[in-house]
Predict the structure.
Amino acid sequence: MIRRKPIVALIYDFDGTLSPGNMQEFGFIQAINKDPDEFWKKNYQLSRANDANNILCYMYLMLNAAKENNISLQREQFRKFGSSIELYPGVKDWFALINAYGDEIGLEVRHYINSSGLREMIEGTSIAGEFTNIFASSYLYDEQGNAYWPGVAVDYTAKTQFIYKINKGINEVSDNVKINQYMPDHLRPIPFDHMIYFGDGETDIPCMKMVKNYGGHSIAVHDKKRHETALKLIRENRVNFACRADFRCGKPVHSVVKRILDKIKADDEFNRLLQLHKHKADKASQR
């Protein structure tokens, strides 16, 4: 009997983690002739004035701005904006690099997005096909294919829910039944200690700390400006590691992830050995 490889989930925020800045700043905000700071200031003011969810507010502002500027907001237009999103160094080659290492040591590596950004824009990037699932905000579309209302708004609370969905092997955002049903830990496809979470911002902290506290590993990805913030997260015991946003072979994040994968593999082999000896002992006691 062929033993199935243990599955490891690498879970990424998008904005500020795989890409510098916010994805709306690559194409969309230029198309509506707005300054990024002006757009996000307006979003902040709308959210504060109405005590509203800031994710729903930015999605509302995008719809309004598109109408005012006669810009189509069909899926293909979103994907066109997404195709112009800039990625951090090494991101395009990262997935093949890590998949190969996982395969070399006997692990199946899967990649997931867990983002407050837009699924439709992420689907337009060159790396969209690398992910088992993209959990992100998205719109509802009318019969003509035009976005008209937020369908999914991913804030930090929703992000933690998606961690549980990955743990249980649930792919549907709309599911609210299986996610609450009891499932024994040994039947869950991806244990928490087989997870590596990559994040950069405040909306990632609950997920990063949750994964860390459940035995997985969290990496605060940062640019030069956020270096001290990332180190602070380590001191506060919210993440395990802080690495510069450079995913090229041999860079710190690459080295850290390889060592984590080594540990996951070793722990899995150790636990199998424990189970084998327990099984032998139980069998002997029945004679």
About this structure: The CA atoms of residues 32 and 70 lie 9 Å apart. The radius of gyration is 21 Å.
